Each structure stands twice: as structure tokens, then as C-alpha cells.
């Protein structure tokens, strides 16, 4: 259950990272509210997950999901570069997340 909470927290991290782009410096009400809700949910679920998951592992997985997901969103929906180095970097992040999960105690 803690790992599921951590994964969902990471997905909400993607939501608030992407949402920041659409708040226009928190001058747009709806995107700002949605971004704020995503932040609260993400941090709340991270806190729940860290009850049992080691802090270093949990935080690294949470930020890794957020980083890889935000990069993918930018590449797919915002026309950001699909450079092979960027793609390899995303794959590297995902591999590291898997290794951390497999080695967590």
C-alpha cells in the first residue's frame, strides 16, 4: 500500500510540475487551484508512503517519477526535444527507480 501511495504521489508531482506552467505565475485562478491541490495531494501521499519506505528511497522515487513524467509530458504534449540523450536520460531515471524499489528494505 505504501508503494502505491508513493507512485500516486509521484503522478501528482507530475501534475503540479506541469500545472506550474499554466498558472502563469499564479495569476490564473483555476490552474493555480489545481496546481495547489496537486501539491497537497502529492506531499500528503508522500508523507503516508514514508511511514514505511526509507526516506532516501521514497524521496528519490518520488522525484524520479516526477522528473521522468514531466520530461515525457513536455516531449509528448509541448513539442520539447526528443533528442536521444533526453530519451536515454528518462530511461536511466526509470531504471534507477526500479533498482531502488528492488533494493528497498
Give me a quick take on this structure.
It contains four helices and no strands. It has 105 residues and is mainly alpha-helical. The model has no long low-confidence stretch (mean pLDDT 96).
Tell me how many strands there are. 0
Alpha carbon gap, first and last residue: 15 Å
| Apparent shape | flat
Mean pLDDT score: 96
Identify low-pLDDT runs: none
Secondary structure class reads mainly alpha
SSE order, as H and E?
Answer: HHHH
Could you describe the largest sheet, including whether it forms a barrel?
none
- Total count of helical runs of at least 4 residues: 4
Work out the strand percent: under 5%
Percent in helix: over 70%
- Counting structural domains, the number is 1
- Gyration radius from CA atoms, angstroms: 15 Å
Question: How would you sum up this structure, described in words?
Answer:
This protein has 105 residues and is mainly α. It has one domain (2-103). It contains four helices and no strands. Helix 1 crosses helix 3. The two termini are 15 Å apart. The model has no long low-confidence stretch (mean pLDDT 96).
Amino acid at each position: 500500500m505504501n508503494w502505491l501511495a508513493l507512485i500516486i504521489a509521484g503522478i501528482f508531482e507530475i501534475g503540479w510540475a506541469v500545472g506550474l506552467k499554466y498558472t502563469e505565475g499564479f495569476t490564473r485562478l483555476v490552474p493555480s487551484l489545481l496546481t495547489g491541490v496537486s501539491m497537497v495531494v502529492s506531499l500528503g501521499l508522500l508523507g503516508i508512503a514514508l511511514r514505511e519506505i526509507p526516506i532516501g528511497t521514497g524521496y528519490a522515487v518520488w522525484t524520479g517519477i516526477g522528473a521522468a513524467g514531466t520530461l515525457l509530458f513536455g516531449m509528448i504534449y509541448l513539442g520539447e526535444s526528443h533528442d536521444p540523450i533526453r530519451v536515454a536520460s528518462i530511461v536511466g531515471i526509470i531504471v534507477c527507480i526500479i533498482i531502488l524499489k528492488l533494493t528497498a528494505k
